[in-house]
Amino acid sequence: MSRFPENFLWGGATAANQIEGAYDVGGKGLSIDDVFSNGSYTQPRIMSKETEDDLYYPNRVGSDFYHHYKEDIALMAEMGFKVYRLSIAWTRIFPTGEEETPNEEGLKFYDRVFDECIKHGIEPLVTLSHYEAPLHLTNKYNGWADRKLIEMFKRYATAVFKRYKNKVKYWLTFNEINVANLPLGNYLVLGVRNEGSRYYTEQVDNPQIRYQGLHNQLVAGAWAAIIGHEINSDFMIGNMIAMNPAYPYACDPKDVLLCQQNWDENVYYCGDVQVRGEYPYFAQKIWAENNVTIEWGEEDADVLKKGTVDFFSFSYYQTLTVTNRDDVEKSGSMLGGVKNPYLKANDWGWAIDPDGLRYTLNMLYGRYNIPLIVVENGLGAFDKLEEDKTIHDPYRIEYLRKHIISMEEALADGVDLFGYTMWGCIDLISAGTGEMAKRYGFIYVDSDDYGNGTFDRYRKDSFYWYKKVIATNGEDL
Ligand code: BGP
Questions:
Q1: Hey, whose CA ends up nearest to atom 9 of ligand 1?
Q2: pLDDT tens digits for the chain (477 residues)?
Q3: CA dist 19 to 87, 426, 447, Å?
Q4: Which of 128, 430, 433, 449 to mutate to test the pocket of ligand 1 (most atoms within 8 A of CB)?
């Protein structure tokens, strides 16, 4: 007997900036991600790989979903998807972010996409902001560092909530909002300029800007929850947190304290605001230690209190092991931390840890006691397209199988988990590195790191496997 509830939402997830392409089509404005290269927001994402500067060489073609969405959604339907998580590119709707009225052509595109989902009985789950804020707002206001963005985001959220109120029920506010506190976060999440750094990975950190930007975003997200529920009281609006749960390397109490601090700063700092409507007790200490003074708007506290979320969503790829010791080998993951001797890592140093998902689900449910959904999980890997156009990816099946078993165990523990959208169900551009070669999909897209290829789609072995998983509601793994 399957332990998954009968109406469990099985599906996959993507983001506009990584899949759509067509960056300048249909009146779309440039987003930060369209020019995201060395952190200066000046160079286009298409670069050659010849110098060190080109370590990150994303392209703007994505998977050309803009022109392939029908075919892609049909393939999702073939797998039996109940839900498809995607994001709306803010810049298709408000090209600079400052317009008074939305861009009709952009709105029409998502009408077509949602209609296609509905036609196939797939529930859209829509992220309002997935690393794709208008570049203009970065240039003019230094992104979320400026409170003015709250008003612009409200206008954008209102426009899409109104337009799609009968097509979309499930919404997420900001993708991985807590990543603002991680090394790449300033640009990705906050759209804050990073002049002065040479490489993408060298973030010039300014805690005042970072915590203020995050505060502005938390307020904007709370506004979205308030406005959304006014427009349609049936809306289910969730947050989205990057879960990289920390473990202490040793049972040394100092490591345990470090670990606890990591959970506080990286998970509960944002999670508490979004679920409980106020900052946790330790926020004051964090601000004081960083010499940060948060500028509060008159209504902010009230808005945070009222604009809490209906459910908690998160991404989960890896766990993080922390220690005070300096004689332990580093993990190699962009998150930092040290190697966990009990875990294997993928080709990018990400520690693969299915049990950690059960741990995460229990920790979050224990603290927040609201429904949970895993909206990202998957394995980035180098796949090979064989001559007969098959792709054999047993490693991906293995990874997903173990994580699904872990969810099953959490359900048996009593956790209220209502869905799972595997990340990058169709191959797309990596957010972290800009590569196409780091593939996650059940569906292979014939394109390279530079956006060259036929863009034909091919079913991987995992495609047929996931179809069976969904058909048996997680029983046949
Ligand atoms: C999450 C992002 C996604 C996604 C995923 C995988 O942090 O929300 O956008 O890309 O990570 O990361 P990467 O693309 O770097 O492999």
A1: 431
A2: 788 999 999 999 999 999 999 988 999 998 888 776 544 444 444 333 344 444 344 457 889 999 999 999 999 999 999 999 999 999 999 999 999 999 999 999 999 999 999 999 999 999 999 999 998 998 899 999 999 999 999 999 999 999 999 999 999 999 999 998 875 667 778 988 766 554 445 556 788 989 999 999 999 999 999 999 999 999 999 999 999 999 999 999 999 999 999 999 999 999 999 999 999 999 999 999 999 999 999 999 999 999 999 999 999 999 999 999 999 999 988 788 999 999 999 888 899 999 999 999 999 999 999 999 999 999 999 999 999 999 999 999 999 999 999 999 999 999 999 999 999 999 998 887 778 899 999 999 999 887 889 999 999 999 999 999 999 999 999
A3: 10, 8, 12
A4: 430
| Of the candidates 309, 299, 31, 265, the residue with the CA atom closest to the CA atom of residue 143 | 31
Report yes or no for ipTM above 0.90: yes
- Contact 431 CB / ligand 1 (< 6 Å): yes
Measured in Å, residue 251 CA sits from the centre of ligand 1 at 31
Nearest to 235 by CA among 314, 172, 305, 156: 172
All structural domains of the chain: 9-471 (3.20.20.80)
Residues annotated as part of the active site? 376
431 CA closest ligand 1 atom index: 14
Query: How distant, in Å, are the alpha carbons of 83, 270, 392, 433 from that of 381?
Result: 24, 30, 12, 13
